[in-house]
């Protein structure tokens, strides 16, 4: 009798099964595998090449990602400022992602940040264990792998450090010097996010302090995420992070010169190839809620390569944790709310404990 179970041929060994909740880090697993060219089957995200959008159109789209000049936004010259606000509004409405140039963060600081971020992930496991295991998302510092291994069917080829850096600054004291660099960077990013939120309020036809006030941004929550994606022997099968939108208002991202971020635009995955010394800004869920859907949290994902370690430093800038966020009252004078209001802390904790999948967290609060 024919058996329903297929027996793998000897030339195609079965890939190993690894549950991410049983490993401390994918970096460690990747390094321990030596020359093995098979990744665990539990990391198989996609069965077809995910570079299927590598056509001329996607390339053209990649070069069309908007660029916002921060110095124009902060200009005291009214015409320059107004034009920059218009471009910002267009970037938010049409793309949900843009590259920020002339932002004033010194290149040297970003270089140092990347160097120290690499050193952190290179620390021996024993040194990182104190931040490990599955802690509450509100724990000040967390180290882990994948996204939320306990609830995932498929795991992701990344390790992370997450630290809540505002209103209280929490950060590891090792490697030496990392904490000081991270503090300076986190403060500078908050300043940029605040100015961008003012510009975004104006672009919605509102007073510039409208979003800042309604989110109590000056005591807003900030998470400092340091993603590390080791080279993956089968990059076409796995993902660093699956398609998702971010939780906060604005995510500001820098990377170590190795690409991997893609955004979904008009149904296509588009590579984000950041201009030198720019910061990538990603619109997140809380802005979609506040703007009552005018600006959407953009879907994005992280793809892998088999040559170089990729590091991205991602600062999630959100409302104050105890603030209830719903569509802005000024926008509801002429339209119905598209989202329920929810305390940011509840939204944050829910997202961090749920399978990362498209915009599933936002759909929980969407009104029909
Ligand atoms: O590493 C990247 O480019 C994306 C990271 C990301 O989406 C995240 O940390 O939420
Ligand atoms: Fe993200």
From TrEMBL:
GO terms for molecular function: L-ascorbic acid binding; metal ion binding; oxidoreductase activity. Gene3D superfamilies: B-lactam Antibiotic, Isopenicillin N Synthase, Chain. Pfam families: 2OG-FeII_Oxy, DIOX_N. Residues 219-319 form the Fe2OG dioxygenase domain. Keywords: Iron, Metal-binding, Oxidoreductase, Vitamin C. PROSITE patterns: FE2OG_OXY. It comes from the Eukaryota. PANTHER family: OXOGLUTARATE/IRON-DEPENDENT DIOXYGENASE. Belongs to the iron/ascorbate-dependent oxidoreductase family. This is Protein DMR6-LIKE OXYGENASE 1. The lineage of its organism: Eukaryota, Viridiplantae, Streptophyta, Embryophyta, Tracheophyta. The gene is LOC106775152.
């Amino acid at each position: 009798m024919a058996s329903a179970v297929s027996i793998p041929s000897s030339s195609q060994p079965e890939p190993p099964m690894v549950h991410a909740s049983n490993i401390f880090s994918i970096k460690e697993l990747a390094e321990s595998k030596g020359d093995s060219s098979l990744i665990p089957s539990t990391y198989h995200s996609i069965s077809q090449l995910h570079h299927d959008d590598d056509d001329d159109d996607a390339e053209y789209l990649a070069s069309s990602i908007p660029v916002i000049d921060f110095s124009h936004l902060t200009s005291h010259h009214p015409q320059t400022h107004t034009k920059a606000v218009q471009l910002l509004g267009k970037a938010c409405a049409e793309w949900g992602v843009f590259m920020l140039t002339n932002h004033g963060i010194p290149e040297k600081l970003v270089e140092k940040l990347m160097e120290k971020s690499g050193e952190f992930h290179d620390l021996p496991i024993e040194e990182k264990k104190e931040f490990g295991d599955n802690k509450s998302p509100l724990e000040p510092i967390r180290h882990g792998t994948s996204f939320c291994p306990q609830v995932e069917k498929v795991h992701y080829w990344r390790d992370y450090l997450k630290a809540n850096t505002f209103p209280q600054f929490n950060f590891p004291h090792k490697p030496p010097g990392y904490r000081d660099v991270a503090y300076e960077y986190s403060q500078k990013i908050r300043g940029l996010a605040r100015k961008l939120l003012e510009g975004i309020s104006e672009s919605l036809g509102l007073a510039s302090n409208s979003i800042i006030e309604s989110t109590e941004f000056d005591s807003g929550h900030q998470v400092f995420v340091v993603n590390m994606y080791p080279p993956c022997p089968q990059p076409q099968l796995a993902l660093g992070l699956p398609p998702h939108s971010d939780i906060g208002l604005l995510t500001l991202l820098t990377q170590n010169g190795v690409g991997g971020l893609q955004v979904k635009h008009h149904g296509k995955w588009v590579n984000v190839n950041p201009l030198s010394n720019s910061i990538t800004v990603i619109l997140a869920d809380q802005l979609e809620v506040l703007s009552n859907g005018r600006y959407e949290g953009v879907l994005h994902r992280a793809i892998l390569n088999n040559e170089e370690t990729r590091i991205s430093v991602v600062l999630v800038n959100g409302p104050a944790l105890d603030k209830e966020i719903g569509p802005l009252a000024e926008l509801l004078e002429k339209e119905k709310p598209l989202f329920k209001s929810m305390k940011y802390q509840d939204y944050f904790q829910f997202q961090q404990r749920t399978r990362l999948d498209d915009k599933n967290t936002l759909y929980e609060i969407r009104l029909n």
